[in-house]
Amino acid sequence: MRAQKKSKSSKTSSHTGAAEETSSIPYPELVDGSSFVESAVKLTVTLAPIYSRDSMTGVYETLNSMLLHFVPQVRGVVLSYSKVKPLTDVALVFNDSPYGQLDIEANLLLWRPVSGMTLKGTINVQSPDHVGMLLWDTFNASIPASFIPKSKYEWRPFSDEEIAASTLQSKASTSSGSSDSDDSESEQPKTPTVPDITQSGSKYGSGEWVFKGTSQSVGANGDLEFMVVDVIRANDVLSVTGALL
């Protein structure tokens, strides 16, 4: 009877530990909606004297310099602009400054991720410390190991045999692709089939994150869905820190 009681207590403790581990991840409140926003904005553009006779050329040059940069005035990364028009006929010059100030209106397409959104990225690196991703081949995202619930996922290192087999497969593919076109019609010896760790979408290092119990790779097709925990701004560049769901 004592042994059974002890086993039950151990099982309860295990479930409690898993719950505590998951609750320690700072999941924000879920936010619905897209990270892409179209916004009509009013901006004041500073024009150099060279644009005194052609102010709109200076306006477009300023807007072009904003593309793919985080602009605090609009609270997002500018992806494109349209419907640009001046709000006054002439630029204003103040005091002894040679630069003019022109108010404009424009429609901007912005990337504006916020904490709590669910995004999907393409995995480009996996390590015991984090999972790195690209969002739309443009923006960086990272999921630290501390934001990966260990009750659901675990790190699985690749075996030496898997790494060797993948290297052999890669070399065989490269050799086959570089053969002369004159020999394209000749019969080529078949390359023996070997396990390919790149097929799991985890060709990025010495191992991969997998689901506990099934050992299925996270993001088996190369893409991974996660929740935004923090948005980091470094100068005019945005990156995202996320947590696995």
From TrEMBL:
Chain intervals for the UniProt region annotation (Disordered): 1-26, 166-202
Main localisation: nucleus
Ligase listed as a keyword: no
GO cellular component terms, semicolon-separated: RNA polymerase I complex
InterPro entries (UniProt xref): RNA_pol_Rpb7-like_N_sf (IPR036898), RPA43_OB (IPR041178), Rpb7-like (IPR045113)
GO biological process: DNA-templated transcription initiation; transcription elongation by RNA polymerase I
Record key words, sorted: DNA-directed RNA polymerase, Nucleus, Transcription
UniProt keyword Transcription, yes or no: yes
Localization per record: Nucleus
Location of the RPA43 OB domain: 113-245
Organism encoding this protein: Coemansia interrupta
Name assigned to this protein: RPA43 OB domain-containing protein
Xref: PANTHER family: DNA-DIRECTED RNA POLYMERASE I SUBUNIT RPA43, DNA-DIRECTED RNA POLYMERASE II, III
Feature: compositional bias, Low complexity: 166-179
